[in-house]
Amino acid sequence: MALLRSITTVGGYTLMSRLLGFFRDMLFASTLGAGPAADAFFVAFKFPNLFRRLFAEGAFSVAFVPIFAGLLTTAGERPARRFAEESFAALLAVLVVFVCVVEILMPWAMVAIAPGFRADAAKFALAIDLTRITLPYLLFISLVALMGAVLNSYDRFAAAAAAPVVLNLVLIASVLGWEFLGRTPARSLAWGLALAGVMQFAWMGLALARHGFNMRLRLPRLTPNVKRLLRLMLPVAFGAGIYQINVLMDMIIASFLPSGAISYLYYADRVNQLPLGVIGIAVATALLPLMSRQIRAGNEANALGSQNRAVEFAAFLTLPAALGLIAAAQPIVSGLFGRGAFGAQTQEATALALMAFAIGLPAHVQVKVLATAYFAREDTATPVKVGALALAVNLAFNLALMGPLGHIGIALATSIAAWVNAGLLAWLLLRRGRLQPDARLRRKLPRIALASAVMAGAVAGIVHGFPEAIGWNESMRFGFVVAVVAGGGLLYAVLALIGGAVTLGELRTAMRRPGPVAPTGSSSPG
Fold first, then answer.
1. Of all helices (H) and strands (E), which one includes residue 114?
2. Within 10 Å of residue 188's Cβ, how many Cβ atoms?
3. Residue 342's closest CA among 440, 445, 270?
4. Mean pLDDT in the chain?
5. Cβ contacts of residue 199 below 8 Å, gap of 6+?
6. Which residue has the higher pLDDT, 19 or 366?
7. Is position 522 within any domain?
8. Who's near 196: CB < 8 A, 6+ residues apart?
9. d(CA 41, CA 192)
10. What's the chain's Rg over C-alpha atoms?
11. Is residue 516 situated within a structural domain?
């Protein structure tokens, strides 16, 4: 049950960050609304985050961890530490060049990522200015991802999982202090994002030092292990980051829709990202180093068992979350964002996008679980091929649905592509004998689905029983959302226990903290 305990450690900190993120987004909605300035800022916000997730948390981490964990297991502490330092130097050199080049070419980059903005010269110029401010965030947060990958390989998950809390605190301060700083809300937030990267870098540097791992700066060199890292990383940049590529494609296409479309999709995706981030990041973060060590040690049966438990745990949380979001999308959006510049029409448009995004929530998380089975074995080619097909599916449905459904069609296309991605990854693993659902998984999945469906039906009944809730004041609407979510969660827990989808023993095990793997010759921090 070490996997489950590690998942809950990462998930707990991620949940804390996501809740702060919700408060941050409530301030965004109230201050920015969904107009041209909001669209420009969200492009500037997403641009560095896209590359962070592709090349740092996505490609770099899933390529780095199996090599680093393998060196720890087979060669020891010193070669693993040297590889981490060599990787840090190589990543830093690439990022400095990339950031400088993109800063210079930003007008052309903006044509590529938001071509529809050219119809509004002021919005286009603002998006360029804001993205130039936010881009250095990519440099710092990518190095943060490397340091987090090192700690994760020692089963020290807390520091990296807590780092996004720093981001949200800085952004909250930025949006609250924009008048004091004498800037517009959008510019204040852009500078806040750049500052947050520096703060997160300092946080992770301290965490590494407390663990006895002082990263020595080396001159960048293409050593054999760095070449191996790059060889694995390049295809994974596509395979592991397919969700973010889909998001970029959505943003490009949405830029041609009426003003506000990008903002609707942003706010809806933020709500959807709470379970996706908490569950998906937690499961993948804990599973990759564990499976990598098990496979390197020749324990294939244990690796398959860990994968089954990850699939089960992901389904246990994502199925009810997805159905609950669909059933209660309108009051959730209204309760969280319905204030200030975020009017009734914006709330309705965002809620419809949320329902479409939620359809793909379980698939997105299972993609993270299933892709880990390939990455732990250093197979990066298969996810690339599957990802390419899913990307084509997303593009095809985007173009087919954006006409009749507008921004809702874009969200729905993302969900359809996610199910195609998950289905193909699972099918190929089954064919290769690397996904073998055991009796426990086959027994529990139908029970999870039944409990989720009953809970969602009850939530939908409550929501439709109070149609006047959308007109209540802010505090009453927020209280209604809390009551519906808490009530739905409690009902699901009871149904899951009664139906055998989970046991009290499993819940108690999940709450126990996992023991860390300490570096050789160092003491574990208190």
1. none
2. 22
3. 270
4. 82
5. 166, 167, 170
6. 366
7. no
8. 137, 166, 167, 170, 171
9. 12
10. 22
11. no
pLDDT tier for residue 200 given thresholds of 50, 70 and 90: very high
Amino acid (one-letter) located at 115: P
Q: Following CA atoms 360, 366, 370, 371 in sequence, which dihedral angle do they give, to the nearest 10 degrees?
A: 60
Looking at the structure of the chain, the number of domains it has is 1
What is the model's pTM? 0.69
Place of tokens 């892709």: 371
Give the domain extent around 297.
Answer: 2-511
- The SS3 of residue 379 is coil
pLDDT at position 301, please? 82
Closest CA to 478 of 18, 22, 169: 22
Task: Give ∠ CA 415-291-218 in degrees, rounded to 5.
Answer: 95
Neighbours of 248 (CB within 10 A): 18
pLDDT in tens, 435-492: 888 888 899 899 999 999 999 999 999 988 887 766 677 778 788 888 988 999 999 9
Q: What is the DSSP string of 314-338?
A: HHHHHHHHHHHHHHTHHHHHHHHH-
Query: Is residue 520 classed exposed, middle or buried when 0-12, 13-18 and 19+ CB atoms within 10 A define those classes?
Result: exposed
Q: What is the DSSP letter of 117?
A: G
190 vs 174: CA distance, rounded Å: 9
Number of Cβ within a 10 Å radius of residue 179: 10
The two structure tokens encoding residue 512 = 């126990």
* Cα 502 → chain centroid: 26
Residue 508 amino acid letter: R
The kind and range of the H/E element at 523 are none
| Helix, strand, or coil (residue 521) | coil
Is residue 526 one of the residues assigned to a domain? no
Q: Does residue 517 belong to any structural domain of this protein?
A: no
At 140, which amino acid appears?
F
